[in-house]
Amino acid sequence: MPSKAYQKWRKVRRGELDRIEHAHRAVGVTGRGRWYATPQVNQAYVMLLASHFQGFCRDLYSEVADLLVGLVNPTYLQPIIKAELKRNRQLERGNAQAGSIGADFGRLVPSFWDHVKRHDPLDEHRFQEQLEALNKWRNAVAHQDFSDFPGPAKLRLAQIRRWRGVCNRLARIFDRVLHDHLQSLTGTPPW
After folding, report:
1. Contact call for residues 17 and 44 (beta carbons, < 8 A)
2. Residues with Cβ within 8 Å of residue 58, at least 6 apart in sequence
3. How far apart are CA 157 and CA 38, in angstroms?
4. pTM given for the model
5. For 147-156, how does the pLDDT look when each residue is reduced to its tens digit (9 = 90+)?
6. Are 85 and 106 in contact (CB under 8 A)?
7. Residue 74: is the preceding peptide bond cis (ω within 30°)?
8. Which of 59, 43, 50, 54 is nearest to 6 (CA)?
9. What's the Rg (C-alpha) of the chain?
10. DSSP run (H or E) holding 136
11. pLDDT tens per residue, range 20-79
């Protein structure tokens, strides 16, 4: 069984992203004069995708941190350890990019990206590059500053769908990495 965070990613967050796909089809280029709204829907889609993936990462981190804190004995140390695990989490104030994910999850699983690579050895750097590109677009849209892009900035649905596939795959791998790590620590499956 997957973590609660992954279940939410697969059910709730997927549904939200599916709704923006439907909106995209509703304003697509099939009708005359309707194409002008497509860039705005693409921008909304990239914002939603980046925010939902960041939300998933925060949810998963919190779920694992709470599980680990619950194992601490004596119990009076639990609030101290919980506060320490939540202190300065990069995913609270920045994008879910390779560096912030590695820094935060590295507190729970040392060398986190190495564990991710063991689960999917061929694609680690591609995943990180795709996250960087997704967040570059997210920031450009959020701040309405496209100066980092040469020429006219064109955000395409096909690219957003590829990023969504990367996020789906990373969510599954992150869930598995944390499951395996917690099981190795405790001797029992965490979820």
Report:
1. no
2. 89, 91, 92
3. 9
4. 0.92
5. 988 766 788 9
6. no
7. yes
8. 59
9. 19
10. helix 124-143
11. 988 877 776 555 555 567 888 999 999 999 999 999 999 999 999 999 999 999 999 999
